[in-house]
Specification:
- This protein has nine helices and ten strands.
- It is of the alpha/beta class.
- The chain folds into two domains: 1-75 and 151-251, P-loop containing nucleotide triphosphate hydrolases (Rossmann fold), CATH 3.40.50; 84-149, no CATH class.
- The strands form two sheets. Strands 6-7-8-3-9-10 form a six-stranded mixed β-sheet, with helices on both faces. It has a four-stranded antiparallel β-sheet with strand order 2-1-4-5.
- Bound molecules: adenosine-5'-diphosphate and magnesium ion.
- Residues 11, 14, 16, 34, 36-42 line the site of adenosine-5'-diphosphate.
Length: 251
């Protein structure tokens, strides 16, 4: 459903993303795990067609993001790390605006109602976004990303600044979306999140995918006991750690 082939993005001489290869299956929640500065956001921006890759390519649902951007975008929802919302619109106005951008015409009103209800925002739908809390803004952005019923949802570090209840709601959302067949690509620096909701994870470090596979694969790779992924993660992304090779996937 998502495929990155030899994907690289250089900023000057810095390889922010360095020859990434990975594939995410339909209905899977894939955790893109890495410390700050690892290259997660850059990878996602290239995946979303916001940045052009230096080399390599991305396909979403079989559509090449550079060659068929409209088709790729039509099946994809995106929640950026620092979303932009028009503060002077109300929640429902913002969603109508986004719905228009996605050409969701039929049933838009109903879809907006349904999502606002689901994310417990109905009560505030006519208030200006500027009066929303951080958590409410984030839920609104999630509504916006789901308006057109995307088959792929890409979310960049959604847990930052979210309280435990909000985090629970988000995790449940990803699980239920995946159950319904949506493919979720979730970037995070939080091991707990990855452990709880992701079927497979890829660990990115200095732009390179240094390991990928199931949690069990990663435990084995880092030679730590189950339930101790945190130490595995720290070990794998330690400066000067010996590279574990091309990964554990499909040997
Ligand atoms: N616009 C940019 N210009 C130059 N370097 C950048 C730019 N954006 C990111 N970088 C660098 O690329 C690397 C990866 O950054 P980023 O993708 O934001 O990582 P992450 O999202 O994993 O924290 C970092 O070293 C960062 O400093
Ligand atoms: Mg980032």
């Amino acid at each position: 459903m998502i495929r990155l082939e030899n994907l690289s993005k250089h900023y000057g001489r810095v390889a922010a993303v360095d020859s990434l290869n990975l594939e995410v299956e339909p209905g899977e929640i894939f955790g893109f795990l890495g410390p700050n500065g690892a290259g997660k956001t850059t990878t996602i921006r290239v995946m979303m067609g916001i940045l052009r890759p230096t080399s390599g390519r991305v396909t979403l649902g079989g559509y090449d993001v550079e060659r068929e951007p409209e088709k790729a975008k039509a099946i994809t929802g995106f929640v950026p790390d620092r979303p932009f919302i028009y503060e002077k619109l109300s929640g429902s106005e913002f969603l109508k605006f986004i719905g228009g951008l996605h050409h969701v015409d039929e049933g838009l009103e109903l879809r907006i109602q349904e999502l606002l209800e689901h994310f417990e925002l109905s009560e505030w739908k006519d208030e200006l976004v500027e009066s929303y809390s951080h958590g409410m803004k984030q839920r609104l952005v999630l509504c916006a990303s789901l308006l057109h019923r995307p088959r792929i949802l890409v979310v960049d570090e959604p847990m930052v600044g979210i309280d435990p209840k909000g985090a629970r709601t988000l995790k449940d959302l990803f699980l239920s979306l995946a159950k319904g067949g949506t493919t979720v690509f979730l970037s995070t620096h939080s091991i707990g999140v990855a452990e709880e909701v992701c079927q497979r994870v890829g660990i990115i470090h200095k732009g390179k995918l240094i390991a990928s596979g199931t949690m069990a694969d990663l435990y084995r790779l880092a030679k730590v006991e189950e339930g101790r992924l945190e130490s595995a993660f720290l070990e794998l992304t330690r400066d000067g750690a010996s590279p574990p090779g091309p990964g554990t996937e499909r040997p």
